[in-house]
Amino acid sequence: MDEITRKLHSIATDKTLSPAQKAHYLSLEAENMLPYPGLDAETQEALDERVICDLYEGHAPYKPRYVLPDYSIVLKNGSEYLELPVPESLDEAINTLMIAYHHVPSVTGMPVYIGQLDDLLLPFCEGVSDEDLYNKIKLFWRYLDRTLPDAFMHANIGPTDNRVARTILRVDAELKQTAPNLTFFYDPEVSTDQILGIATNNIVECSKPHIANHPIHADTFDERGYGIVSCYNALPLAGGASTLTRLNLKEVALRSTSEADFFGKLLPHYVELNFRLAEQRIAFLFNESNFFSSFLIEEGWIEQDRFTAMYGVFAMAEAVNALQEKEGRAGQYGFDEVANALGHRISKVLAEAVEQRPMENVWRGHAMLHSQAGLSIDEGATPGVRIPYGTEPDPVMHVQALAPHHQYYTSGISEILTLDETIKNNPEAMLQLCRGAFSCGFREFTVNVASNDLVRVTGFMIRLSDIEKYKKEQGSRTNTTVLGAEASDIANILERKPRVMSHELRPGYGQ
Amino acid sequence: MSSARATVSKILSYSCVDGPGNRLVIFLQGCNFNCTACHNPHTIGQCNHCGDCIPACHALALSLVNGKILFDPLACDSCDDCTEMCPISANPMVQQYGVAEILQLLRKHRPFLSGITVSGGEPTRQIKFVFELFQAVKADEELAGLSCFIDSNGYLGAANWERLLPVTDGVMLDIKAFDESVHEELTGKRNLRSLESARILHAAGKLYELRFLLVPGVTDSEEELNQLIEFVGTLGGDVRIRLNAFQHHGVRGKALDWEKMPEAGVEVAAERLRAAGLGNVITPVVYV
Questions:
Q1: H helices of B146-241, where?
Q2: What is the pTM of this model?
Q3: Mutate to test the interface with A, among B77, B108, B112 (most CBs of A within 10 A)
Q4: Has residue A487 got a pLDDT over 60?
Q5: pLDDT tens-digit series, residues B123-154
Q6: CB of B21 within 8 Å of any CB in chain A?
Q7: B-chain residues near A432 (CB < 8 A)
Q8: In the A/B pair of chains, how many CB contacts fall below 8 A?
Q9: For A419, which residue in chain B has the nearest alpha carbon?
């Protein structure tokens, strides 16, 4: 057998993967037998050396990485293509959504966004008793976890305090499922203290939801709105992101002779190559794949011009520490003011570069900067702009060190604060931390409580007990457990202080 | 501006176990009890500049200058070996802070804080500083919303509480034991003043929490729990009781030969208190 045949054979015969998971990995291998979208030699070399990275999205991007349909369209109009009538009751509305989700692609093959659920369902709740609402949401939640078992799948609620949001929070704390992931939009002008309190109590229960600073995000996007999907990516509603390419800042720093060389020469060079990589992938999606002839466009669930390009960066901590060493300075990222300021300067330079570089077929004509949370196979590279695992300062210092980055990362940045379980006797402390973080400009607030079975590994949720089972070769029902197992072996993430890191896609079988 | 300065063992900008919400905690050096079971014994004594700790410091952060210990916080890597070496349970790393410096720290962390707690050691031994600090917090427009709490052993007398309480929002008070001889054996002092403090604080509406340390075979007895129930009954009204479990973390000397208090035993005690009508009983989340 040649190498590729061997690989296909080992996927087909793997002990731990379900048939559906095997089909997914086999299709990835098939896609990657196609030639890569044409790259110039410099870009190809940077990609081969993994200074820039396409997150192994596949050689032929025939679907956008993240799709955020405006589900209110199908609830208002029904769907001609799917032969769905206009829903009139809560049961019909939930059923319509359950069907709709199966027609929404993403890089994982499963929907990463299932909607602003309280806005979508509230109009159908008149006359529905609290108990009925609770029972229906509970069944809906169970359905989502069992049929779309991917922790990147993300539901949004808030910022208002309403019945549906409260019921979802109640059910989520009760079931403690990995899927769906959940974000509560917080707006101090709109959200009540009570619902923020319920949300933070839920974090104590199951490390969910994650809380988004709604006013900051709302200012970044337009009236049509935005959604938080997958691992804390903020993207235009009725659109999404065509692609996510990322720059390994550590590799750029290691190739530089000094701070001046980094800022003057190498950073601009590799920043440009990462743009070119994104451009080629977007060109294939828009010009060759025929994705935008789908009924999703025709019926108005999504709009072709609302897809952005996510410009990812990671390994900021290692980059700063490498430059500090080259300049003969001892201070470490996360702890030292000079090192932290250097990090903030890098973020600023990146944000300006993204703002100034025009891109075709991209929402508003330029990409959006993203603090990329890592892959399960990353070694020696800390996700995004985070402080390395196990070395984080106390939560207050942690937030203060990273807050100045947040203004630049318009398409998402996640810090995961790890709190020890003594917080369980004092959830008000978590509420205060959240308020503090938002008042210093944090876009998102995400916490893991150290003893919970449910934790965020590279940003998605996993169950620690599932990882144990997977390692015993029993296989796992949820796709993200596979990722979690890899990430925990390679990046020591389960040995973190209390802990966490974040993100996305298992790049491919056996990678 | 106030002139009082404090001898500080440590300051934390994040704590969720020293009162409601997230609090900045100042651990003041020095205690008038000498508890066998103390979990941070290096806060008990005051440095007498003997220099015995200097060889223990691998980071060369300690030296003796003009007969006084000089500590270099920048060189220190917080290994705490010096405190292990100290023959009088003191801490050579203490630093002096004025009220203005603490206010500056509070401003820096203001959005993250629900309040401030002075702990120790026994913070009321530095009552002048505590009073002036709390008074300054209350008078400061930006900081006035922070609640001011004291974590105390209750040895302070009535007249001093009267002085402190107008600027204090709540006190977490430890009762180490109800039987006098047990209390004296555990702490080196009798418990009359601590019990009296509990009454004063409760009457003033400032007793945030009554803390009781369960040590197996010492304070988890039927008699101790009965006296606790009876005492809380005499206070009247709702009292928040926190049961702490004796653990080995931080403990030195002969108390290390004592058994740790197991979770099951704490729950039995908690149930006993609840059954007797004490509604608000808190037990530890973590056992180490």
A1: 158-164, 180-187, 192-203, 222-235
A2: 0.87
A3: B112
A4: no
A5: 999 999 999 999 999 999 999 999 999 999 99
A6: yes
A7: 21-22, 112-114
A8: 60
A9: B16
